[in-house]
Design goal:
The structure holds two protein chains of two kinds.
Chain A (H helix, E strand, L loop, with lengths): L1 H16 L9 H19 L8 H14 L13 H10 L6 H18 L11 H9 L17 H19 L11 H6 L27 H4 L6
Helix pairs in contact in A: 1-2, 3-4, 3-7, 4-7, 5-7
Chain B lengths: L13 E6 L3 H12 L4 E4 L14 H6 L12 E4 L7 E2 L25 H10 L14 H16 L26 H12 L5 E2 L34 H4 L1 H6 L3 E4 L3 E7 L5 E7 L5 E11 L5 H8 L24 E8 L12 E5 L7 H4 L5 E6 L4 H6 L15 H10 L3 E8 L8 E9 L5 E6 L4 H21 L3 E4 L38 E3 L14 H20 L5
Parallel strand pairs in B: 1-2, 1-9, 2-6, 3-15, 9-17
Antiparallel strand pairs in B: 3-4, 5-11, 7-8, 8-9, 10-13, 10-16, 11-12, 12-13, 14-15
Classes of the chains: A mainly alpha, B alpha/beta.
Chain lengths: 224, 557
């Protein structure tokens, strides 16, 4: 499995690339075992819903897909964000359950308000969906032209969903993030956890630190 | 962690009980146990090891794997003593064995001579209790050197023309430069400034049992899986345990320092992980709980002899809080920097350490460093206060395109500067809010001295100049705002000669209780120019020598 070979690569590079005395003897095995178990469990649970109903999951997936849309590269949908949020709401983010329970119906009410002919968010076109979401986003640079009834529950819901979507998309794929590493691939974050210089474009031809020629001469006069 | 550390009975009077195992507590544990004393360290957090550390941003940064947990230990905040404090999180500190040194950035430059004598040099500053230290840089210099060699600090001696004198070079060379460091260095030199390789408490060469930095990129906020970060956990606690005289007792939340009828400390009372209470007896107590929890604990320990808080005859316990001023300017470049690789800071400059106050019109000084300390979620999620320019859409295709393009092409210039001590700025205990153990919650009162805000904005201007000189495609930042959140917890039980205006003397001994010592960020008299951990560790090494001398003379019993 890619993830495990990746982890092994981390350990192997570390040991062979640096020094045999670098680390206490017991931890690589411990970490690998823990990591392996966690990832196996994660894969099995990947596509199971515990908090959302299938119908709700379709709506959450549709909304998060507007936060990080699918275009020429995969987005929130392909990263399985809805499943991460579902797990989050039954584990470490259980406090946020009410935000989702109350907020989703409020958001659906706004759908009917904006587009009376559309029954639910997932039934709208992407452009219509963006129009609906912009009406909740107080921090968006341009507000929707039309004014709507205040809907703090839905606004809070959208803000929370936005945060969860980004977190799910960009969480380390070797922990609880999407195992394919879709988010990290998009932003150019290599999946490894051990790197050697040069790191980027600007340091690749760096000749090494040199004192400026005039530094010594300036030493006394430079203090401001 | 070795398994054969001693298990002292609480009723057994050990030589020292140390409260807290962070930058100061870990060093004192090592030094005092090495010097032959029997030591118990009470740490409120768990004993985590590298196998517990992870790059899971949610677990570490949102669920506070390594830090204080506001749900269990709530805080309150107010700007001035006239305001009613409201419940909000005011601080983050390490809450595990090793304390904040486990997750800190590891910037590790020394304070300069001026930091110890600034009151004499600049005179009184209106609205501030600025004071000289009772010790000078020369007193602390051997201990700075000791820190560098004992825990492992990488750097290049003599690279900055503004550095204070040193008795020895660094024990290992600087870490490899990052693209942000190269951009910073070239631009700063164009401007006539003096960038230099950042001194970091991160190994550039392996040491027994510890790897050199593997450049994983999860540094600020995270524990180091390979032991390269020179935390107390990696660099001091193992040596303490190896003496066979030091017991590290985690999950031990101290709520009171007990005195006998003569006014001598007899030990520390604490909750264990099951909320059972114990009293660990000791000949002397050394409190290293950090600049927030140390004053809180003294105030919680009020008794008949000290009705206003233990060792608080000066009224200065908790006062003069300093957080360090500063902030961030971000810049975007055409080509990938890939600055997510590696540790945070590779270049720094201190041309502005001592500003001409007459010329700039305010007190203060500071510096700039080149860094990228964002993790992927943190970069993208925080809107304008994350890593993205303020005009970036918060969601949708524009957002997706921005994170795809910018994550590898962004760097920050971090501005770090002085905070002036102000008596009303403080940590104390809230009269109403309680924590999960029924103890009064920590209350923070803070309003930046106007000069601190002026300094921050002045440094921001330098940051923008630097990005202009660097040819950044775009750069942005925000004007300095009053602070309501603390990570540097400084000055709240300050050191001094005069018992009326300080809490401890130059030996870290409280003026009021002979066998009670305080050593952590609270001991600092001035804030330096940011990055206080090096000085806290140097003070701890020095305190250990002073306390050892007093104990061997029989002055503590």
């Amino acid at each position: 499995m890619f993830r495990d070979s990746n982890r092994r690569q981390f350990l192997l590079q570390s040991v062979t690339g640096f020094s045999a005395v670098w680390i206490s003897a017991q931890w690589p095995a411990l970490v690998e075992a823990a990591e392996h178990g966690r990832l196996e469990a994660q894969s099995a649970a990947q596509k199971r819903l515990e908090f959302f109903s299938p119908a709700e999951a379709i709506e959450i997936d549709a909304i998060s897909s507007r936060v990080i849309p699918t275009d020429e590269t995969p987005g929130a949908h392909e990263a399985g964000v809805v499943y991460f949020i579902d797990r989050a709401l039954t584990t470490f983010a259980a406090d946020a359950q009410a935000i989702f329970r109350d907020g989703l119906p409020e958001l659906q009410a706004r759908v009917a308000e904006v587009f009376p002919q559309i029954a639910k968010f997932s039934g709208a076109t992407p452009e219509q969906q963006d129009q609906i979401l912009r009406s909740f986003d107080k921090q968006a640079p341009k507000r929707a032209v039309r004014a709507f009834r205040p809907s703090p529950g839905a606004e809070n819901f959208f803000e929370t969903l936005r945060t969860f979507t980004i977190a799910a998309f960009l969480l380390d794929p070797d922990t609880r993030g999407n195992p394919e590493g879709i988010g990290w691939k998009l932003i150019g974050r290599e999946r490894e956890h051990v790197f050697q210089p040069p790191f980027g474009y600007y340091d690749k031809d760096y000749p090494g630190w040199q004192p400026p020629a005039t530094q010594e001469a300036e030493k006394d006069g430079a203090k401001k | 962690m070795i398994v054969d550390q001693p298990k002292y009975k609480t009723s057994e009077e050990v030589d020292f009980v140390i409260i807290g195992s962070g930058a100061a507590g870990g060093i004192l544990a090592k030094e005092l146990s090495t010097n032959g004393f029997r030591v118990v360290v009470l740490e409120q957090g768990p004993y985590l090891t590298p196998a517990d550390f992870t790059h899971d941003e949610i677990k570490v940064l949102q669920e506070d794997l390594l830090t204080n947990k506001p749900k269990l230990q709530p805080n309150t905040f107010r700007k001035t003593p006239a305001d009613k404090a409201v419940r909000q999180r005011v601080l983050a500190y390490g809450c595990c064995v090793g304390g904040t040194s486990v997750h800190f950035t590891a910037n590790f430059w020394r304070f300069h001579e001026i930091d110890f004598i600034e009151r004499s040099k600049v005179g009184a500053v209106p609205g501030s209790t600025l004071a000289d230290w009772p010790i000078t840089y020369a007193d602390l210099e051997p201990y700075y050197t000791k820190v560098e060699w004992e825990i492992g600090v990488s750097g290049l001696a003599g690279a900055s023309p503004f550095d204070p004198p040193r008795s020895k070079p660094y024990p290992m060379p600087p870490l490899p430069v990052k693209s942000s460091g190269v951009i910073f260095e070239r631009a700063a030199r164009k401007l006539g400034w003096h960038p230099y390789p950042a001194p970091m408490a991160i190994l550039s060469r392996p040491r027994p049992g510890r790897s050199a930095c593997v450049n994983c990129g999860f540094c600020l906020g995270f524990g180091c899986e390979v032991g390269a970060k020179s935390s107390s956990l990696a660099a001091a606690i193992p040596a303490a345990e190896k003496t066979g005289r030091c017991e590290i007792r985690p999950n031990s939340y101290v709520f009171r320092i007990e005195l006998d009828s003569r006014g001598r400390a007899i030990g520390a009372a604490y909750f264990d992980e099951h909320k059972n209470t114990h009293l660990q007896r000791a000949k002397a107590v050394v409190c290293c709980a950090n600049g927030a929890e140390t004053p809180r604990l003294l105030l919680l320990s009020a008794n008949k002899l000290f009705p206003d808080g233990l060792a608080n005859s000066s009224g200065y316990v908790g006062k003069n809080l300093m957080l360090n001023s500063g902030g961030v300017i971000s810049g975007l470049f055409d080509e990938p920097l890939n600055d997510y690789k590696g540790y945070a800071v590779s270049r720094v400059l201190h041309d502005f350490y001592e500003l001409d106050h007459e010329k700039v019109g305010f007190y203060g000084g500071g510096g700039l460093d080149a860094r990228f300390d964002f993790t992927p979620i943190g970069f993208a999620v925080s809107g304008p206060f994350g890593g993205l320019p303020p005009d970036t859409p918060r969601w949708g295709k524009g957002f997706k395109d921005a994170i795809a393009h910018n994550f590898t092409r962004t760097m920050e210039v971090f501005c770090h500067g002085t905070s002036l001590p102000v008596a009303d700025n403080s940590f104390d205990i809230d009269p109403d809010v309680k924590d999960a153990w029924g103890l009064p919650a920590l209350r923070m009162t803070y309003k930046d001295h106007p000069d601190d805000l002026k300094l921050s904005n002045w440094l921001f201007d330098r940051g923008h100049e630097l990005f202009d000189a660097a040819g950044a495609k775009k750069h942005w930042g925000y004007p300095a705002a009053e602070q309501q959140f603390a990570v540097h917890l400084l000055g709240t039980c300050r050191m001094g000669k005069d018992p009326k205006t300080s809490v401890i003397n130059a030996d870290h001994q409280t003026h009021d209780v002979k066998n009670l010592f305080l050593c952590d960020g609270s001991s600092l008299v001035t804030s330096g120019r940011g990055q206080p951990t090096m000085t806290i560790m140097a003070l701890a090494f020095r305190a250990a020598d002073r306390i050892t001398a007093l104990a061997k003379r029989g002055d503590l019993v």
